[in-house]
Amino acid sequence: MISNSTAIPHPVAVMVSGTGRHLDHLATLAASGELPIDVRLCLSTRSDIGALQHAKRWNIPVQVPDEARELSPEAYSDLVFSALEQAGVKTLILAGFLRFLPIPDAWQNRVLNIHPSLLPAFGGAGYYGHRVHDAVLKRGCKVSGCTVHYVDNVFDHGPILVQRTCPVLDDDDADRLANRVFLEELIAYPEALRQHLSVQASG
Ligand code: GRF
């Protein structure tokens, strides 16, 4: 679906802890007009991760709140959400972000996350990165996939927006499976954001 080019792009921030492939992909779709978002801010857990190269290339301002991890979850959340309010951000997109972030009431259904399994299977504390795919392979699953969901105050738990599946092949290892799931993620996140934006527009 091509967006209406006259629509005002919806202000978002993307929060990262890794290589930032979704940050890059979403910024690409925003630049081509395929997704009506304006990536106003990149929030990172560290100042030395690959994702920040993408932010730099796309001229997206970066902040690294509490890099030393000294703050309580609540104080960290205060810092993050005041930065978002200050930047005029309306929706927060977690994209390979690895830290517990309590969600204030005013931000319920405004924070999205993508997880590389078919939740509720293989989700929750400790299930991230290749640990997810290793567990899927160990259990002998025949399908896997990804889930985009709203974030609440329990890991990988909030309402589901989009799920996409892919096969698990007999000779898969975690790398091969992760790559196949990621191809579905590249479709699922924009689709979920379009759904979210249409709800925002009608509300
Ligand atoms: C994706 O697999 C996503 O499902 C998970 O983090 C990965 C993207 O982060 N939440 P990155 O591009 O590897 O940093």
Domains, number: 2
CATH superfamily of the largest domain: Formyl transferase, N-terminal domain
Q: Count the DSSP helices.
A: 5
The first-level CATH class name of the largest domain: Alpha Beta
- What is the CATH architecture term of the largest domain? 3-Layer(aba) Sandwich
CATH fold topology of the largest domain? Rossmann fold
What is the rounded distance between the termini?
21 Å
Order of helices and strands: EHEHEHEEHEEH
Class based on secondary structure composition and strand pairing: alpha/beta
Give an overview of the whole structure.
The structure is a single chain. The chain is of the alpha/beta class and 203 residues long. The protein folds into 2 domains: 1-107, 3-Layer(aba) Sandwich (Rossmann fold), CATH 3.40.50.170; 115-151 and 161-203, Rossmann fold, CATH 3.40.50. It is 35% helix and 21% strand. The protein contains 5 helices and 7 strands. Strands 3-2-1-4-5-6-7 form a 7-stranded mixed beta sheet, covered by helices on one side. Helix 1 crosses helix 5 and helix 4 (130-139) crosses helix 5. The longest helix has 29 residues, at 174-202. The chain starts with 9 loop residues before the first strand and ends with a helix. The relative contact order is 0.15. The mean pLDDT is 95. 5-O-phosphono-beta-D-ribofuranosylamine is lined by residues 18-22, 51, 95-96, 114-116, 146, 182, 185.
